[in-house]
Specification:
Largest sheet: 6 strands, mixed
Number of helices: 7
Order of helices and strands: HHEEHEEEEHHEEEEEHEEEEEH
Structural class: alpha+beta
Shape: elongated
Length: 272
Amino acid sequence: MKKIEADAIKLSSEILRRFWQKDSDFAGEYFADDILWIGAQKDEFLVGIEAAKADLDAALREIPPCILLHAEFHAVSSGSKYCTVIGKYLTTTDKNADFFLQNIQRCTFVWENTRDGMRIHHIHISNPLGELQLADDERFPTTMGKMAQVYMNRQIKQLAESRRISLTGENGTTYTLMQSEIMYISAFSKDTIITTVNGEMLVKKGISKLAKLFGDQFIPIHRCYIVNPDYVTALERYTITMLNGEKLPVPQKKFNEVREALRQFYNLPKDQ
């Protein structure tokens, strides 16, 4: 890896980490005078260092402190002077925040190596299509705050459902896990594969029996898949996206049923 690529990736990561800890000054030190800042809000298209700094400062007054998880950054093009970095990461509220929420973001940074050091000419922050529904007067951090009650309810629900479940795996192995740790369950011949936040395990029990065990706490999206709606981030025709980025199929004839189940789970209006 070239030095300019390593520097650009390191600085991009540090800027985001500090911003979500409510420090925008560090980012401002690397802004070029003609920086173009594009945020998640539809009218966040700002040119110039003063406008970009003012927008970030306004955002900091609204967001809770967050940490970055599962961050990936890649230098996709570079030369002797310029380097473009793209990345994705999960923001989740700091343990000291008053509520829990999390969201996946994507970013692009365009860096220039100048005589005065590295400078940013362009930043673009976006959210996966369909993951958030923004009101006309909302920026992304504000929307996160308004979603707090949904995520708070989810946390309360997870605590209430933290009962441990024992299941038999290969060679008689007994797995003990909490229902709230399960992301989704998939059929594997006469057995099932349970995907949790910590990995996968093969269970010697059919998917129909597990569906009955978990009842209406999980949503059947396919004859081979049932999902924990806590870990669903997006529904499109005809796939569902889980928090780990995996896409699972939703049959066309079952799409409206799955959409309605998710709408009821998140207590959304009928037009959402």
